[in-house]
Amino acid sequence: MADIKIKDLYSLEESMAGEFLSKFEYPWEALSSIKNFIIELGNTLPEDKFDKVGDDVWIAKSAKVFPSAYIGGPCIIDEDAEIRHCAFIRGSAIVGKGAVVGNSTELKNVILFNKVQVPHYNYVGDSILGFKAHMGAGSITSNVKSDKLLIVVHNEGDNIETGLKKFGAMLGDNVEVGCNSVLNPGTVIGKNSNVYPTSCVRGVIAENSIHKNDGKITKKN
Count of CB atoms within 10 A of residue 32's CB? Predict the structure, then answer.
């Protein structure tokens, strides 16, 4: 079975949420607590580095936010991040240092580690994206099953009940998701793995793997 615990997926020093996440075993266990954590953390941020610009919205002075972007609270935009034209941050979002949230990208209940890029027409909901993870143009995390049943993580025959109705995807460090791919509810992708463009991904992809268009998964050389 693939390793899918927080310690296996993420470099926790690459997020202001690292200490928070370390309290959990599996990453999806943190989803219900992101909102309250942001409010708690935001109120401790140094005023010489962060501006509080609305109800529970903190933006680093070094971040670049386009005037047309919408940022709903609670939310923290960390240093040197870039929030581009018409980005839509619905709330309960942490955008890490140097991360990019692009044109018409929507975020909701997420943690983006440092240097994450979701730069073009992405939907990222109820998800955690690790250090330097990148989602190609038009790729999305689907966070609710069509039958509205609770989400189960399928890991090589081991089925883990999450108890969650909303759960998008957990992407480890340095994951690359190709353009126009759909990550189905409960997807977990290990570190340094790649997803081919236009893929429909389900279940768990082990670290250092390649998910191809036909659903076949191969190990990197």
Answer: 13
